[in-house]
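Our preliminary data section would be incomplete without showing what the modeling component actually yields. Below, a chain of 182 amino acids is followed by its predicted structure, encoded as tokens that our downstream tools consume directly.
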Amino acid sequence: MKQNHFPLLKSAVHLIKPTILQWMMVIGLLMCGLSDIHAQTVEISGSCSSDVDGSYTLQPDVNGRPSFVNGGFRIEWSGTRWENLNTIDIVGSFNTLDTPYPPASSLQAWTPNPAAISCNPPGIFSGNGTCCTLDCATLCPSNQPETAIPTLSEWGLIILALLFITLGTLYILQGQGRFENG
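Predicted structure:
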């Protein structure tokens, strides 16, 4: 004959049983969405075209370095230089500094491409996705105001993980009949 040593625990498990997995999935998805994200952007202003100007957002690496996209326009590392490409892959401007991220105009001005239809002036390159120093030890500050992104601290994540482990263990034990009377 089994004894119920945990009457309050049993009632708590019955209250959460029907939706525990669904709630755990929802909370897990929320945790993924609330991670600490500081999107890196490159800002171009004052160029030859309003299509070129704007915020370029971080994209997957190209040739081992990050790329940035704004509509059909891209900033990529070619292997020898940084290039600002238009929608049909023509280089509008370039920068020959070998930096891990695109160099800011304050570090070295971008050059219009004389071999093609160039964008002159190439504009001012800035933003938190650009290098302000040759070693790029720190990225340049963003021109846009920072928006607060809610995050969980390390201790918050540890406590939440322990809560999930406890609830999952209770759910499994309840399913095996370890909390049954009689």
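The chain has two domains: 7-36+151-175, 41-126. Residues 41-126 form one domain. Preliminary results of this kind motivate Aim 1 of the renewal.
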